[in-house]
Amino acid sequence: MNGVMNEDSLVAWIKKNAAVPRTRDVVLGIGDDCAILSPRKGEELLLKTDPVIEGVHFTSALPPQAVGARALGRSLSDIAAMGGEPRYCLISLAVGSHHDEAWIKNFFRGLLGLARKTGTVLVGGDLAKSPHETHVNVMLCGAVPIGKALRRDGARGGDALYVSGKLGKPWDRPIQPRLELGRKLRGLATSCMDISDGLSLDLHRLCEASGVGAEIERVPIYKGASLERALNGGEDYELLFTLPPGKPGAAGTTRIGRIVTATAGIYFEGKPLEPRGWDHFERT
Amino acid sequence: MNGVMNEDSLVAWIKKNAAVPRTRDVVLGIGDDCAILSPRKGEELLLKTDPVIEGVHFTSALPPQAVGARALGRSLSDIAAMGGEPRYCLISLAVGSHHDEAWIKNFFRGLLGLARKTGTVLVGGDLAKSPHETHVNVMLCGAVPIGKALRRDGARGGDALYVSGKLGKPWDRPIQPRLELGRKLRGLATSCMDISDGLSLDLHRLCEASGVGAEIERVPIYKGASLERALNGGEDYELLFTLPPGKPGAAGTTRIGRIVTATAGIYFEGKPLEPRGWDHFERT
Asked: Does the beta-carbon distance from A32 to B142 stay under 8 Å?
């Protein structure tokens, strides 16, 4: 670490670079004990936190800009899955000593680029040194009109089951949070969640929350990926959602099957599909 | 790690134990992509994130209950410093493999104990394994009546300078966030912040934000601590605040000096006091 660099001067650099068009929502951004935000009338808030850990969620070889964009993208995907709009974020960065000042600044350049694109304002956070690998935690606050959030507990028997995009993408591909699709699904989808730990595990979670089962008939596979990876790989960040019978799906989405209530569990091509996606406690 | 344990079953355990009296604010807690919260009329929101890293902020010998309480206590202290009331928190726990399931549960017992005492509802978070030391990140959302937040940029020449409690406390002492004092100071204090990185560094930050200088005349020293530690040690989590001339201080607080505008910088007993508190990038 550059000897001249200190926490306050890094924070000042980040504050300068975080300057995105301010809305009246942000009463006070970076620099005090807390950020002060003014919620808009008629909205509910969405809160999410997600970690990105070196050696778990990314390798040291991934460029810092990509790490920054990935850290924010993961949480943005959750806001998308609720049909929300991102508003504010806070970043906690515990950086390993093998990374220098340039790495930190490029990390923030990547993160702030995606923040600007999606209307997310960086309003605070924390910088620390990590004894070993780098840990990033993003805290994201979004908003949704009152009562309109898409939840995972509303799927009903007979609903059609959809996913956006293709599954089985390489883990280091930039995340494209499905914010526009999420907003479009408000008032239409009976349930929605994002696929972060793999279709088989995440669909099990959706079915458990809704008290239903599911039959998968087909899966849109990313070019070059295996069926196994499309079913059980993680890091897809596509939306998994259900629509009442007869409602047409949106552009860029595929109907992969349907929700059933006669049987519990999930079936793929007639056979039971076990939840074998990414579990941080079983797999690592 | 117990082979039977997995992420979903741990989350279910936490959800069960996080059951505190729900208010109408919490539309949806643990278990979906995001928590859904309903902001109250007439309030602004306070957002804060703070990390607690094994080997940096605590040693492996600290009991997990104390780690959990400390992780939440640090952020609660920031809400107190703004004159706010804590509302919701999310916890990101990346746990080292040298800790087992019992450690994780006791960590949450400690954290949830302090959450209950302070009216903070755990509404979400993330569990992951860390390749090395344990990293905890708390994301805390508080609230304050519109326009009433205590900021660090309002100190004026002639204001009296105060601290709560005694300075130089042992780092592993339980944090007692000064929530009641913070609320009492609303509408009275011209500026306020919490002392987390040491009086000398934090007072420099307050003076810089307010564009003033300060003269310290005395410091209330914790029994057994040195003056050096009281001035430059971190982890005190007391409030540092300014009152207009003539206003009496609150119980449990000490007038330590005054705000000046004739000179920049901070003076202690007539000599310049350099900011030598805890900087995560210079000291570690």
From this structure: no
User: Is B109 in contact with B14 (CB distance < 8 Å)?
Assistant: no
- Burial letters B50-82, b for 16+ CB under 10 A, else e: bbbbbbbbbeeeeebbbbbbbbbbbbbbbbbbb
Tokens of A240: 């998994």
3-state secondary structure A128-155: EEECCCCEEEEEEEEEEECCCCCCCCCC
Q: Is A88's Cβ below 8 Å from some Cβ in B?
A: yes
The pLDDT tens digits for B100-137 are 999 999 999 999 999 999 999 999 999 999 999 999 99
**Token pair for B50:** 């703070």
Q: Which residue has the tokens 């400690």?
A: B110
What is the C-alpha to C-alpha distance for residues B140 and A51, in angstroms, rounded to an integer? 16
Contact B215, B159 (CB under 8 A): no
HSE-up of B184 (CA within 13 Å, CB side)?
A: 14
Interval A33-60 mean pLDDT: 93
Decide if A197 contacts A279 (C-beta within 8 A): yes
Q: What is the pTM of this model?
A: 0.92
The candidate with the shortest Cα–Cα distance to A181, out of A163, A155, A158, A199, is A163
**Interface predicted TM-score (ipTM) of this complex, two decimals:** 0.91
The DSSP annotation for A92-113 comes to: EEEEETTS-HHHHHHHHHHHHH
Residues of chain A neighbouring B129 (CB-CB closer than 8 A):
56, 280-281, 284
For residue B33, the 8-state DSSP code is: S
- CA separation for the pair B66, B107 (Å, rounded): 7
For residue B3, is pLDDT > 50?
A: no
Judged by CB atoms closer than 8 Å, whether chains meet at B34 and A90 is answered as no
> Cβ contacts of residue B159 below 8 Å, gap of 6+?
B190, B191, B242, B243, B244, B245, B258, B259
Paired tokens of A20: 């995105």
Give CA B124 to chain center in angstroms. 19
Q: Which residue of B has its CA nearest to A1?
A: B281
Query: Phi/psi of residue A16, each to 5°?
Result: -65, -45
Query: Could you give the CA distance from residue B112 to residue A7 in angstroms, rounded to a whole number?
Result: 31
> Phi-psi category of B56—alpha, beta or left, where left has phi over 0 and alpha has psi -120 to 50?
alpha
Residue A194 DSSP class: E
Q: Are A182 and A165 in contact (CB under 8 A)?
A: no
State both tokens at B253: 């607080």
**Cα nearest neighbour of B137 on chain A:** A137
